[in-house]
Design goal:
219 residues; alpha/beta; Rossmann fold; 6 helices
């Protein structure tokens, strides 16, 4: 099995690559991992990971600079049903559009848009909510537990760093939320594709569990 981590100039590529290689080794899986933007390699893959760090418009621009990449992603994920994982902005890019900086179109794989986190108000200690939402937070997992959340509890912590969130219309596609002044979709999924707002590659043992679950998922 061939796993491609898409390199379009955004994302913690080395840490993402290492995290996936660790899970592959721990689970004794026969997977190869390649970090690339080559369309031929993406077409020949079995699984695709789209990391994302920075602003939505910058990430979209990075994708557009690789001619044909967005169309290839649509063909491979939506038409050919390849396993896909979007991380942080890689998840947000699956929205219809984003309001970050300028109105920017997304892939439209989920209904909804990207908006700034509402930081009005104070937390239980009376502190103002700061933007970005940065640090460790737990998940509120839906009763309909998605396979990538197998053996993950609500006590476990995942690493978040973002100022914008996915205001998703398809609530039945949200399998876990996190709370930061309001509910923020943390795990969304539909058919063969999944998005996570946090960084599993930075989320220690819990992140490795989620990566392992995704690698072994058979939708």
């Amino acid at each position: 099995m061939k796993l491609i981590i898409i390199d379009y100039g955004s994302g913690n590529l080395k840490s993402v690559e290492n995290a996936f290689k660790n899970s592959i080794l721990e689970n004794n899986l026969n997977f190869s991992v390649e970090v690339t933007s080559e369309l031929k390699s993406i077409k020949n893959s079995d699984l695709l990971v789209l990391p994302g760090v920075g602003s939505f418009p910058d990430c979209k621009e990075g994708l557009q600079k690789i001619q044909g990449l967005i169309d290839v992603l649509f063909d491979e994920v939506i038409i050919k049903n390849k396993l896909f994982l979007g991380i942080c902005v890689g998840m947000q890019l699956m929205a219809e559009y984003s309001l970050e900086k300028v109105n920017t179109d997304g892939f439209g794989w989920f209904k909804g848009n990207i908006e700034k986190i509402n930081n009005n108000g104070t937390d239980y200690l009376g502190r103002n909510y700061k933007i970005p939402h940065m640090g460790w937070n737990n998940l509120e997992i839906s009763e309909e537990r998605h396979p990538i959340l197998k053996n993950i509890t609500e006590k476990e912590q995942f690493y978040f760093v973002h100022s914008y969130y996915f205001k998703i219309k398809e609530k039945n596609r949200v399998y876990a939320n996190t709370n930061y002044n309001h509910k923020i979709p943390a795990v969304i999924a539909k058919d063969n594709y999944v998005g996570v707002q946090f960084h599993p590659e930075k989320s220690s043992f819990s992140g490795q569990k989620l990566i392992s679950n995704w690698l072994m998922w058979k939708p």
